[in-house]
Amino acid sequence: MDTFGAKQTQTKCPPQRSRRQLEMDTLRKQKRKLKKQIRAASSEGTNGLLVIWRQLKARHSALSKAESARKKRSRKRKNQERFIRDSFTLQDSSSNNPSLEL
What is residue 15's predicted lDDT score, i.e. its pLDDT? Predict the structure, then answer.
């Protein structure tokens, strides 16, 4: 609409995956392929494949820990902002309603 004051709706695009999340996806696929190769390999070839699989697993777990720490920080920051923003409304509603007093 070209009228003054009319809001235009915007379509939300899905959130982009971070570099860490993309790398975790590729590591997960590589680990799956290696597990299939380990099952199909002879007993001599399994040791080398297991070493590679353990390296991939260590890298994936390190990335996973970092990603969960990032999400925890983000969640904590959002909760703090929400508390600060909504604390005044919560305080006003409790002062108006005596049944909500502590």
Answer: 86
